[in-house]
Write a structure and sequence with these properties.
This protein is α/β, with parallel strands linked by helices. It contains eleven helices and nine strands. Helix 1 crosses helix 2 and helix 3 packs parallel to helix 5. The structure holds ligand C2E and calcium ion (3 copies). It comes from Alkalibacterium pelagium.
Length: about 280
């Protein structure tokens, strides 16, 4: 007799079980993970495309799970947002980024701003401002070295986010719109918000060899310029992209061409040189 094998339903069922159990492990692990020091920040330089000088950094969250190993933030951030854990995790990220930045300053390394990613859920929570104030006070970090990156989704709830943004502006904390062009963006709104920078998503940069995509990127850069916003290109991987960006008057980039996000020690080594390549 032939081996029966698994029918489509059993196979589907097994896969679904696997997905659900992974999701449960992640969900249950978020709280412990924070307590038990499983999270860390990696840093990726922001680079002046012309001089190749490091002009800032983005802090990116990493989770080393005891059973699942490294889990991408693309997978666990949405879970943390759904379950509410993002508030505690996001607070930890802000605190850790400020502490590390201040540590580098004390060590005599160049004073460079650090950008942290902030979920729209943190904006809606109502405690973001007071938390940031407390952390700045406790760490001795000056507000002008802290930047926040938020996605376009904050524009959906403008009545809630606008006052927070204005308070942040008053505190001299700068705001970047992350993944600009991928989501919900209203030019009418963005023009009224106290935003400093737009970050072009890496998916656009990756396709710049295509003439129509290049034209699109150019138009986003021109738009940023006309709104008096700084424009940062994310996901820069090739010299050809650098040249095209400079031709389009975009001066700041981030990407594997310069460096991947790296742990604290490796970033510190990079800062000692400040010049990349
Ligand atoms: P993002 O904020 O758009 O960050 C850029 C992502 O692109 C990072 O992925 C970075 O490692 C990656 N990247 C940088 N340069 C290149 C490149 O040249 N090529 C390619 N292919 N990728 C590049 P990562 O670190 O996996 O983070 C993914 C997303 O997770 C972030 O996207 C952000 O939305 C979210 N995230 C990361 N850390 C945090 C955090 O602390 N809080 C919140 N709320 N979200 C975070
Ligand atoms: Ca970001
Ligand atoms: Ca992005
Ligand atoms: Ca993002």
């Amino acid at each position: 007799a032939k081996d029966k094998g698994k029918n489509g339903f059993e196979f589907f069922n097994e896969q679904l079980n696997q997905i659900m159990s992974r999701r449960m492990t992640i969900e249950n692990g978020l709280q412990n993970g924070l307590r038990e020091g499983q999270f860390s920040l990696h840093y990726q330089p922001k680079v002046d495309l012309k001089t190749r000088q490091i002009i800032g950094m983005e802090a990116l969250l990493r989770w080393n799970h005891p059973e699942l190993g490294e889990i991408s933030p693309v997978e666990f951030i949405p879970v943390a947002e759904e379950t509410g854990h993002i508030i505690a995790i996001g607070e930890w990220v802000i605190r850790e980024a400020c502490r590390q930045n201040k540590r580098w300053q004390r060590k005599g390394l160049p004073f460079l701003p650090v950008a942290v990613n902030v979920s729209v859920k943190q904006f809606q929570n109502g405690k973001l401002l007071s938390y940031i104030k407390r952390v700045l006070h406790e760490t001795g970090m000056e507000s002008r070295y802290l930047e926040l990156e938020v996605t376009e989704s904050i524009m959906q709830d403008i009545h809630q986010s606008s006052p927070v943004l204005h308070d942040l502006r008053e505190m001299k904390i700068s705001i970047s719109i992350d993944d600009f062009g991928t989501g919900y963006s209203s030019l009418h709104i963005i023009q009224k918000l106290p935003v400093d920078t737009i970050k072009l998503d890496k998916s656009f940069i990756a396709e710049m060899e295509e003439p129509s995509q290049l034209a699109f990127v150019k138009s986003l850069i021109a738009l940023g310029e006309s709104l008096d916003l700084a424009v940062v290109a994310e996901g820069v991987e090739t010299e050809s992209q650098v040249n095209k960006l400079l031709d389009s008057r975009c001066r700041i980039g981030q990407g594997y061409l310069f460096s991947r996000p790296v742990p604290v020690d490796a970033f510190e080594e990079m800062m000692k040189d400040t010049l990349i390549n």
